[in-house]
Specification:
Distance between the termini: 42 Å
Strand content: 15-25%
Largest sheet: 4 strands, antiparallel
Mean pLDDT: 80
Number of strands: 6
Structural class: alpha+beta
Order of helices and strands: HHHEEHHHHEEHHEE
Low-confidence stretches: 1-15
Radius of gyration: 20 Å
């Protein structure tokens, strides 16, 4: 754990290394939990909110994070600041697939059309489907399957988590409609999928097969979203 005083030490090798290490940890928490407040990042890392804000200011200046203003629950008062990882920050965290893959797909598309690209995307996800299915197990509970899928994705480096959303009951006895959202904060195929959305589409189809329900993509990193969000309908409570 690093104290706030570390930030005020003279510029020297070990201190610079500590700053950089802590800053990378701050960036990783924003990736996993964004949109997230400085206070929440501090709780996660054992730092004060003030110390975290200094790191976030640097990350914001260099373009690794972006600030979102979020209104309170009742819409009153000043909006609070929440942080998300920018596209530049995604690159800093390691979108390290080979550029030759993009060039190869461009040549394939030119020679054989987009259907050939879709075949490549479909084969890519078919290659991991059985491994994902084995990790999810045999449970028939959709919530458990959704959480297990997010766990597999997180282990694969997609910084995945699950959020439960739903329409709150109005006290009229009607059941509450619930849903889960699988959020992926990182994608090593992000730049590739920006040119070839077939990869996002085939991944969505994979999720639907694994969960056994129709799912819907609400946002993706390649199209400018801060996370890839997949909506999973859970039914009524």
């Amino acid at each position: 754990m690093y104290s706030p005083s570390d930030l005020d030490a003279p510029a020297a090798g070990p201190v610079d290394g500590q700053r950089e290490s802590t800053r990378d940890r701050v960036l990783q928490v924003v990736l996993n939990q964004g949109p997230v407040s400085a206070a929440r990042v501090g709780e996660e890392l054992g730092l004060t909110a003030a110390a975290v804000r200094r790191h976030l200011d640097v990350l914001s200046e260099e373009g690794s994070v972006e600030v979102k203003l979020v209104s309170g629950n009742r819409g009153a008062g000043r909006p609070s600041r929440r942080y998300v990882v920018s596209r530049a920050g995604q690159s800093r965290l390691g979108n390290d697939y080979l550029e030759v893959a993009v060039q190869a797909l461009e040549q394939l598309s030119a020679a054989a059309g987009r259907d050939a690209v879709r075949t490549v995307a479909r084969e890519r996800f078919a290659a991991v489907e059985e491994r994902y299915r084995a990790a999810i197990g045999t449970t028939t509970d959709l919530r458990e399957r959704t959480n297990a899928l997010a766990g597999v994705l997180d282990d694969e480096g997609f910084a995945a988590s699950v959020r439960t959303v739903g329409q709150t009951g109005s006290g009229n006895g009607r059941p509450t409609l619930k849903a889960a959202q699988i959020c992926q904060g990182h994608c090593p195929l992000q730049d590739l999928a920006a040119d070839f959305p077939e990869f996002c589409e085939e991944e969505t189809e994979l999720f639907a097969r694994l969960l056994g329900v129709d799912v819907r993509r609400l946002s993706t990193l390649p199209t400018g979203g801060h996370v890839c969000t997949t909506h999973v309908p859970l039914g009524r409570d």
